[in-house]
Structure formats: structure tokens, C-alpha cells
Design brief:
- 28% of the residues lie in helices and 17% in strands.
- The chain is built from 7 helices and 9 strands.
- Strand 2, helix 2 and strand 3 form a beta-alpha-beta unit.
- The chain is globular and about 45 Å long.
- The N terminus is likely disordered.
- The structure holds 6-phosphogluconic acid.
Length: 253
């Protein structure tokens, strides 16, 4: 009889690359491996993607790959700014520019915020949570969704998603999607996946590039503190989930 799976988080894995282009190639391969593993056991590959510098690095190599079953992708946003989809701050728009507009992911498989509720961020978060429930719950009831892959960035203050240092949302342990209107990084009004969702994912990959990330990467890698540390350090999925860091040499010097 095999041992029951451990609930303990496993150690993060760091991948370093000489250039951002090398990182983009390896990231595309990593994403497609996660996709293949997901599709062996289920009909869709469920991925959550952030904004910032990530979509450009992600799209660079991925959009040229052959034979990708894009119709089996189901995409959510790890966080989203509560703005119209064509607004320059929209994470949908950014990902559309660098990825979605180049590949045939069915539009209904890209889960965007309900823009008819922009003046009520709580309603936007509730609606987004309902979209997650509809995708993940199916016929059985589950406590939290389990993404096949979540792709995140790290801000200079250690934030990730829209989970900022010292913010009350760091303690949100029940909801799947939360909202805030006091983000220190503009724009102020956003929705974000919560820690329980991030920490039930099968894979979380942080992507950080460029010398502007040197200090924060040193802090995150040298002083991990999953309980009380920086928001990005608190992402430690329970087994069999794993955290990966994809960084270029400039970010790791
Ligand atoms: C957002 C992001 C945010 C981002 C980090 C890193 O929408 O603001 O999801 O969490 O990933 O701020 O951004 P950079 O990679 O651009 O530094």
C-alpha cells in the first residue's frame, strides 16, 4: 500500500538563463509539458496568467510552436485590473497583444472579468469566482480549484498577483477571488486569486527578468519565509504542487 500524499510543500526549483530569449524558449517548453501532462488525464489545460512583463516573455516563443492543441486551453487571469478590456491597464489586453491574438484559443475559453460591473469590484470578483466554480467544480464539490499551471511575476516590493506586502488580503483563506481598491501599484482597483487557490495549484512559475529584479530576487531566494514573508514567498503549493522560478542572469546577479 502506498503512503498517503504529503500535505507539505516541496522546495522551489530555480532555473536561470543567460538571456531573456533563452528563458522564453524554456518557459514555452515548460508550459507545453504542463499542458501535455494535464491533457493525459483531463479534457482541458487550465492555466492562470498575470500581467506585468510576463505576457511578452511568455508569448515570444510560445506563439511559434507547432501542433499546440489551443482549443483545449482554458485561461484565467491570476489577477486583473478592474478596467475595460481594451484599456491600456487591462491584463487581458496585454495578454491578447502578446499571446491570444496570435493563437486560436477559443474566445469563450478565455475567462475575462464582467465589464458590465466595473463600478462594483466586489461584484466583479464574485462573478469571476463563479466562472472558476463553473469550470472546476463539475459534478463534485471541491474546496479549491487546482490549476495545472499558474504563471506569476514578482514586483520590486515582493508582491505577486495583486497580493501586496502588509495588505489584509494576505490573510484571505476562504474566498477564491478577492478584490481591492487600494493597490499601491496603479491602477488601484483589481481582483486577484487568493493564497488557497495559488497553493492548491499543481505548478506555479514565477518569471522575473532584468536587473531591476536583482534585489528582490536575492531577498526571495535567500530569505524564504512561506508563513510571514513577502507575498511571493508565501506561494508554496501543497504536495504534489511545486514552485518554479524562471529568471534571466540579469535578475540573478
Ligand atoms: C499586475 C501583475 C503583477 C505583476 C508584478 C510584476 O497586474 O500588476 O499581475 O503582480 O506580475 O507587478 O510585474 P513586472 O514583471 O512588470 O515587474
Amino acid at each position: 500500500m502506498s503512503a498517503p500524499p504529503s500535505k507539505e510543500a516541496t522546495a522551489p526549483v530555480l532555473f536561470g538563463f543567460p538571456t531573456t530569449d533563452n528563458l522564453s524558449q524554456a518557459l514555452a517548453t515548460f508550459v507545453l509539458k504542463a499542458q501535455d501532462e494535464a491533457l493525459k488525464k483531463q479534457p482541458t489545460f487550465r492555466i492562470a496568467i498575470s500581467g506585468g512583463s510576463l505576457p511578452k516573455v511568455l508569448g515570444k516563443d510560445l506563439i511559434g510552436r507547432d501542433g499546440v492543441p489551443w482549443d483545449k486551453w482554458e485561461v484565467f487571469f491570476a489577477d486583473e485590473r478592474v478596467v475595460p478590456l481594451d484599456h491600456e491597464d487591462s491584463n487581458f489586453r496585454l495578454n491578447d497583444e502578446h499571446l491570444f491574438s496570435h493563437v486560436p484559443i477559443p474566445r469563450q475559453n478565455i475567462h475575462v472579468i464582467d465589464t458590465s460591473k466595473l463600478d462594483d469590484p466586489e461584484a466583479v470578483a464574485d462573478d469571476y469566482e463563479k466562472q472558476l466554480v463553473a469550470s472546476f467544480v463539475g459534478s463534485s464539490s471541491i474546496a479549491f480549484p487546482r490549476f495545472d499551471l499558474v504563471l506569476l511575476g514578482i514586483g520590486p516590493d515582493g508582491h505577486t498577483c495583486s497580493l501586496f506586502p502588509g495588505h489584509a488580503l494576505l490573510d484571505e483563506m476562504d474566498g477564491w477571488v478577492a478584490w481591492l481598491n487600494d493597490s499601491p501599484k496603479p491602477p488601484p482597483t483589481r481582483i486577484t486569486l487568493t493564497y488557497p487557490v495559488l497553493n492548491h495549484s499543481l505548478r506555479v512559475a514565477f518569471v522575473s527578468t532584468g536587473e531591476g529584479k536583482q534585489e528582490i530576487m536575492k531577498e526571495v531566494l535567500d530569505n524564504p519565509n512561506p508563513k510571514e514573508g513577502l507575498p511571493s514567498s508565501r506561494v508554496r503549493p501543497i504536495s504534489p504542487g511545486r514552485v518554479f522560478f524562471f529568471s534571466d542572469d540579469a535578475a540573478l546577479k
